[in-house]
Design a protein that fits this description.
about 130 residues, alpha+beta
Length: about 130
């Protein structure tokens, strides 16, 4: 996936999530090289959005976390920060570094996902 495509998907995800006052996330499934993260107003309700990471290289994250939607929820890491993580974890070329920002964590902490592809689906229950 080209970086421009990834940036567009990340922007669309953030725009959707930031319409809400809060958002809770959970790791729904991790199988082979596919990671599914679901999110919504509560883990008790059907998820509002499903995030799909394919060809996953590396993950470092909580299984559940809350977010403050007044801040950026999902970031595509670039520049020196990405370079540092790339070197630390020997990330292969062609992967993208994503950071979720949990609500009650320090600003430099984040749930990291390193993958080649990202996509999402909004639950039809919430599109009407």
């Amino acid at each position: 996936m080209e970086e421009s495509e990834v940036k567009l998907v990340v922007e669309e995800i953030n725009n959707y999530i930031q319409k809400e006052l809060w958002f809770d996330f959970s790791v729904q499934q991790y199988t082979h090289d596919k990671l599914i993260i679901t999110g919504g107003l509560s883990r008790s309700y059907p998820p509002m959005i499903e995030l799909y990471f394919n060809e996953v290289f590396f993950i470092l994250l909580h299984t559940d976390w809350n977010t403050d939607t007044s801040k950026t929820i999902l970031t595509l890491l670039e520049g020196e920060e990405a370079r540092t993580i790339n070197l630390m974890f020997r990330v292969e070329i062609g992967n993208h570094l994503f950071r979720f920002t949990p609500e009650d964590c320090q600003n430099d902490f984040g749930c990291l996902v390193v993958a080649r592809k990202i996509s999402y689906k909004i639950n039809e229950l919430y599109t009407q």
